[in-house]
Amino acid sequence: MVPPVASDEKYVPGRGTDRAARERLKYREGLDAELPKEDDSKQTDILLGNGAKKVARCGKCTRPLDDVALQAKQFVCSRCTGGLDPSIVAAAVVVVVIVGVVVVVVVVVVVV
Q1: What is the DSSP track for 52-75?
Q2: Domain spans in the chain, listed from the N-terminal domain onward
Q3: pTM for the structure as a whole
């Protein structure tokens, strides 16, 4: 994919973003969605030592990512996701309903 070229137009308040700016943003978001690749530069060899390999790490706990997370291209390991399938994220919503003097707490699980 060829990166879009930045325009020389200035931002005008109240007009929002133009189409070219939105396309540049989509392009950058696409680049960030990938896991970082292995760095084989001379500087990395000097800093880490010859033959040392850089491994992908979890974004929360910094442990090396497990095979499941690497194959799914996830940035968080299975320990931090609670052992759930990394492609499914569940969120719990607590709803408090007050009926007279009785408080009813309802937990709704939403899968996104």
Answers
A1: -----B-TTT-PBPPHHHHHTT-S
A2: 1-34
A3: 0.38
**Which pLDDT tens digit goes with each residue over 18-28?**
778 788 878 87
Buried/exposed code over 11-26 (b: 16+ C-beta within 10 A; e: otherwise): eeeeeeeeeeeeebee
Contacts of 38 (CB under 8 A, 6+ apart): 53, 54
Instruction: Report the alpha-carbon distance of residue 63 to residue 69 in Å, rounded.
Output: 12
Distance CA 76, CA 65 (A): 7
Short-list 39, 58, 57, 35, CA closest to 48: 39
Q: How far is CA 20 from CA 5, 8, 24, in A?
A: 8, 11, 6
Over residues 55-101, the pLDDT tens digits come to: 788 888 888 888 877 888 788 887 888 766 545 444 444 444 455 55
Q: Does residue 110 contact residue 93 with C-beta atoms inside 8 Å?
A: yes
Distance CA 69, CA 80 (A): 11
